[in-house]
Amino acid sequence: MANANELRKGMCIRYNGNPAIVLEVMHRTPGNLRAFVQAIIRYIGTGKSADVRFGSTDKVDSVEVERKELEFSYKDPSGYHFMDPETYDTVTFDEAFVGDAKEYLVENLKTEILYVEGKAATLDLPASVILKVTESAEGVRGDSANNVQKPATLETGKVINVPLFIKEGEKVKIDTRTGNYMGRA
Questions:
Q1: Angle at the Cα of 115 (from 158 to 129), degrees rounded to 5?
Q2: How far apart are CA 22 and CA 1, in angstroms?
Q3: 135-141 average pLDDT score
Q4: What domains lie within the chain, and their CATH numbers?
Q5: 94-108: per-residue pLDDT in tens?
Q6: pTM, to two decimals
Q7: How many angstroms separate the Cα of 151 from the Cα of each of 68, 119, 133, 165?
């Protein structure tokens, strides 16, 4: 058990019986009232966020967390296979666990898996990934009065909007949080 004052971003706590990650913490002391800690947490099981308030002397139950860096190897009908670069062990996750991250997974991509109490809880991608454009329409010359964009299909099957000058076979940098084009790679 820890004091609410000791909460930090990235910690894992148990709130209402469910493990949750602390996303943001603010210590407040309003005028002549008692100090409190306001935190935004995300429940690991459901992915839903909540805004919670703790008294500065309240006790918070911390949860054992382990972060492991794994490399994506391949996908087959049994699931998504990741390799631990230290032990060379293979770990397989199903499509429900991987979720939307599958749109960015390419061979040898380093990901971070968060284990809560020994069980895999979340998969975190790097902030940006480099993917190859496999299909894109030709840009029309002189059609660049404004920031005109065209759809492009990436090697993972994801379709994003890119500027007209991007051609098939080029590698582009994609923001994994928003799914937007960031630039050429």
A1: 25
A2: 15
A3: 77
A4: 2-62 (2.30.30.30), 65-124 (2.40.50.140), 128-184 (2.40.50.140)
A5: 888 888 889 999 999
A6: 0.72
A7: 35, 39, 10, 12
